Amino acid sequence: MVAKLSPRWTYDAAIQEKIIDVPELVLFGFDEIKSALPLSYHKHDGYEFVLVERGKASWELDGKVYETKAGDVFHTCPGELHRGGFNVIEPSRFWWFIVTPPQREDWLRLPWHESESFTSALQMLPRVRHLGLQAVQGFRNLGDAINSSSPLRSTSIRQAILGLLLALVQPNERMVSLADDLTDQFDLLLRRIEDESEWRPDVEELAGIVRVSPSHFFRTFQSYTGLPPMSYIERMRIKKACSLLAESTATITEIANRLGYASSQHFATVFKRIIGMTPVQWRMSQ
């Protein structure tokens, strides 16, 4: 069962026993990271799909950054160079799988005309598609099928993959990320947090903006983003710092002042705690 996972779990057809009857599955995995991790440019031979379950992650492809939050799926096509936004993956919990392109006959045991339909649908797929957290169960089903010893293991794996692909290319309009009427207000608030990196509100102020009690706000915010409000705000501020370090010639002190830190030393301490290296080291690595 995949229900109780370690912080990282992966099936890799290149190094593990191949699933003979499902050669289309290249990679499947689950990851839960507590602090930002480096993720530089790389590419795959197949289609990659990444579902964010908790937190928020950004991805960079062709010079454009794509933001994803809980319930969003980001995908890349075969051969596309991509990386984490500014070379890092933010603290988050996510699932992913990679499948070969539907170019061969009998792909996932489908008739040729259906494989062609998938080819067309995948080519038209938006870079980020919102499926909602219900999609997590589809990934769990795939993980359970991979770990199964049933004689119908291969059939279960194909069924799980096709279920996920169908959800992506013809999504259910009723799917939502959270059954909460505060979703729109939270999205506006998250946008403001990103846009106003120097803003330092407390939980009471944030709760007042969306007109709920501080305790309800704290629980809902953490459920929606995967992080407590203050941790989320700090990480968004450091993400902005990464952007400024990479795209400007501003000094460390100037960046610290712009982001509202009391000193460049305090800024450097927080930056290293989250990113794993000092601002100077990070800038030199770009």
TrEMBL record:
Domain HTH araC/xylS-type: 187-285
Keyword Chaperone listed: no
Domain of life of the source: Bacteria
Keyword Iron tagged: no
InterPro entries: AraC-bd, AraC_XylS_family_regulators, Homeodomain-like_sf, HTH-like, HTH_AraC, HTH_AraC-typ_CS, RmlC-like_jellyroll, Tscrpt_reg_AraC-type_HTH
Keywords, in A-Z order: Activator, DNA-binding, Transcription, Transcription regulation
Gene3D superfamilies: Homeodomain-like, Jelly Rolls
Gene Ontology MF term list: DNA-binding transcription factor activity; sequence-specific DNA binding
Signal sequence interval, chain numbering: none
Protein's recorded name: Helix-turn-helix domain-containing protein
